[in-house]
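Q: How would the structure tokens look for this protein?
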Amino acid sequence: MLAEAHGTDPHGSDSSMRTSSIDNNNNPDSSILISKMEGVVIPYTSEVPCDDYGQRMWWAFLASSMVTFFGGLFIILLWRTLKYLWTVCCHCNIKNKEAQKVNNPANNPTADKTTKGPDEKEEAAASEVGWMTSVKDWAGVMISAQTLTGRVLVVLVFALSIGALGIYFIDSSDPIESCQNFYKDFTLQIDMAFNVFFLLYFGLRFIAANDKLWFWLEVNSVVDFFTVPPVFVSVYLNRSWLGLRFLRALRLIQFSEILQFLNILKTSNSIKLVNLCSIFISTWLTAAGFIHLVENSGDPWENFENSQSLSYWECVYLLMVTMSTVGYGDVYAKTTLGRLFMVFFILGGLAMFASYVPEIIELIGNRKKYGGSYSAVNGRKHIVVCGHITLESVSNFLKDFLHKDRDDVNVEIVFLHNISPNLELEALFKRHFTQVEFYQGSVLNPHDLARVKIESADACLILANKYCADPDAEDASNIMRVISIKNYHPKIRIITQMLQYHNKAHLLNIPSWNWKEGDDAICLAELKAGFIAQSCLAQGLSTMLANLFSMRSFIEIEEDTWQKYYLEGVANEMYTEYLSSAFVGLSFPTVCELCYVKLKLLLIAIEFKSEQRESSILINPGNHVKLQEGTLGFFIASDAKEVKRAFFYCKACHDDITDPKRIKKCGCKRLEDEHPSTLSPKKKQRNGGMRNSPNCSPKMMSRHDPLLIPGNEQIENMDMNVKRYDSTGMFHWCPSKEIEKVILTRSEASMTVLSGHVVVCIFGDVTSALVGLRNLVMPLRASNFHYHELKPIVFVGSLDYLRREWETLHNFPKVSILPGTPLSRADLRAVNINLCDMCVILSANQNNIEDASLQDKECILASLNIKSMQFDDSIGVLQANSQGFTPPGMDRSSPDSSPVHGFVRQASVTTGSNIPIITELVNDSNVQFLDQDDDDDPDTELYLTQPFACGTAFAVSVLDSLMSATYFNDNILTLIRTLVTGGATPELEGLLAEENALRGGYSTPQTLANRDRCRVAQLALYDGPFADLGDGGCYGDLFCKALKTYNMLCFGIYRLRDAHLGTPSQCTKRYVITNPPYEFELVPTDLIFCLMQFDHNAGQSRTSLSHSSHSSHSSSKKSSSVHSVPPSNRQNRSSKSREAREKQNATRMNRMGQEKKWFTDEPENAYPRNIQIKPMSTHMANQVNQYKSTSSLIPPIREVEDEC
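A: Here is the predicted structure in token form.
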């Protein structure tokens, strides 16, 4: 405590005396140290007070603050009063002068001089005000946070205030009042420097203030009044009084403003949180300082005798337990001033504690758990994944992206989503914490894009919600995400999922969207329809392609079941690798055979560079293509390490090696020299020229000069007056037709003898989202089919819905519509569904149902309805084109190779379970309802179920893996689009974006050359040139023979499910085997997936056998007749069955004896015509059937299949 009157304070510090006489009289102690300083003798001892009377001088410190405050306040009020009186007086003088001018209008020199004086005074005053204004503006700029100088000054003042508060905390451990020498006390000197700076800053603020009175009463001004003057008094009196220096804690209230000036706080929640915390803490510390002052000093009226020794931090503790209403009682106020203060503080502090603390906790609790920023790791790339982030989408993405079959994936995945993950998703992130991070935010916010370091990301992947009710709205959201990301960083590579094909056109409107640099849009509707369309051409192909572009782990099964062979094929994926220079100069079939036989790799396509250095992907090109240096190959293999063999292969070192696992990098200098040129970086794979035309230019693709095409076909195709194909030459085209001209009634459909066609059952109404039927029709109308090979397409569904889709379908030939419902058996019988090559079941209403298990109810009901139907055995036979084909170049007229001679036809379908069906599903788990005889568990993954393995079910979820595949190699997406879309190119997409319809074009050598491209088909092994291999032969021998003889590239088998059992009565279900090994044993009932070349000779001559069918099918051999079974295959037929069939044919022909106006869309007859359909006798009908059954134009048919 401070020195008392008798000078016996034990806490007294070093003191000084201004006179030596006082030392001699009052303190004769010999321990006194006396030193002279500027002629003044100052004794220092712990027992001697600061003056001769030992009185406290706290009132001097307090008086300096009060005088400054009230004195300044008095001067301001006085100035305002005088200014007000002066204004009033001037106003009265002006009124008097105006009255004098009115009373004395005469002008005299005296009056002029009199009036001139005030004007000059006003001008002087104006100039004086201008000077004051400039000074005021300068001071305002100095303290304003709008300028760099102002921000620095504001931050410096705040920092010095916190420093002064820190000095107070240090001095609070000393007595309230003590003797100190300014020249010896280091903390006092620092505090003095701080307060001098505060004084200067106070002057600037005072000059800049518009209202001096309000400025004088501000909190910061009051803090300066009670902290700055006492420091100067302390220097003068050589003593220190702790006093009201705790008021510096009030400066903490401005902490949030300082952080905003520094651009640290940007969000409202963070500003509010800092505000609440700073107000709470500053009030707490300030109140503790007051209690510390009065409790350690005591009450003045009690002569300071009721004081108690409390440290500052004990007072802080006291205030906290008081605010929280706990009040332990271990520390309490003893002085009257302290208790009086506590009474009022409890009222305010309790209210503040009860309101501020819960709000602070709520803000902290609501603070984003994933609100940090990504820290990039040197040497490690990262990608940003945004869009539809759910447990299902993320798990599917990670399962494929981080698959073990890929090379070491040194990529970190950063997920950005505006909703915090649920517990399941959070657990998934934690399981992959070494490669996955999640941040909460939106890609539409540039601040969040900066947090995830989008500018340094390798790519940004945007996932779409495949199950949303409004696909167009979902696409619009993803397009906005692309715009935001590209606006922030135009060079970032973006891979986005799109639901609707027509929305892809909007991406072309983004200036920085550049597919040449790797930007890609994966349209799920386009690819889904393309997969299903390819299954119409080769059943089961959708399953095979889906498995190839998905990462699946190998599952080994010891039992000899169909699952064993299926899963061995599932383990294959699509990879790319640069080919060794040992292959340079060899033709593609030669390299393909070498890779398959020697390296155990299946090469299906290459990247070919033209003379103009433009790159294109060639799928199974012919002998005319020779491999170049650094050619990129597309392989089917089980993992990426196997594909490295194609790069390491050296003829000198590996020619005699039989085990492909031993083919590794050799020490040849040639290989070392080629390594830098062939192993190019990833950017090389993002070649714009290759993506520009996946079907490449005529110089690259055409095996035949367009002008050297056989004469009949050349003359037919070069007819400049007929438009047969679209402007790109990639698709068959016809003039647009009105929908009414292609509508069939049920009776008309019954009279139209449909067979070998595609039935599309579509569920939808006026309000349903469009599924994009054009994407389903385009692959079926690809120009690499001859016109007579096109399968007629019949849509069965709501006419209101099909009207909405018709705008995109009216330029395709051989398309008909039967208004009705796929659930009506009468409608299905009318379109001869038992004679179709494929029945496709689609629904546009799937995403409008919240219950996931009911989303596929319409498709499942339609599928079960068809499978339960029964048909008359005498109606007809299954068509050959869906069962197999004759290899190009085979002499069909030869008796040995005649389809009739060598291939056995299957009897007509008598039950719906034998009808080829592919059903689209939304929910993968609903696949269990399609086959009632399978034993699939509801939790089984889709690719392991029997319907998917058989190619009868397809779900859009299998396309999720394309995001990962496209990121690692964007050529993969180009390849798959080339395979499944029939030849869609970016140029075609641009045309569709402009007109939303195909534009017809005249046939030119360039457009006709685009027809020369491969297509997928199925080869039957029952008889023909490969019959010797079909019964126990090796798949590898078949592969080599087909490749050498017909340039056909085999890549899979479509096998009967029970073929391995060898039972005479087998189930008709088939399953897919992808890329079997060389020694794989074949059975006669196998169908081989192959890539066949375009056959120029197949379309030279074609005779329409009958015009009895609908005109859109009149040119098709499959739709214009009912084929009869050859006599050699009808030995088991009874004469009664034969008579019934003849009777029915005769009845049908008689019923059709009427005149009807048909619309034909044949290229040579693209106009309405009247056809007189005459009744036919039974004998004539039999002759027609006999002609059809023996015609060399009928392709081979697959083996006989009995129902399960």
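The chain has a mean pLDDT of 76.

DSSP finds 42 helices and 28 strands in the chain.

Upvote if useful.
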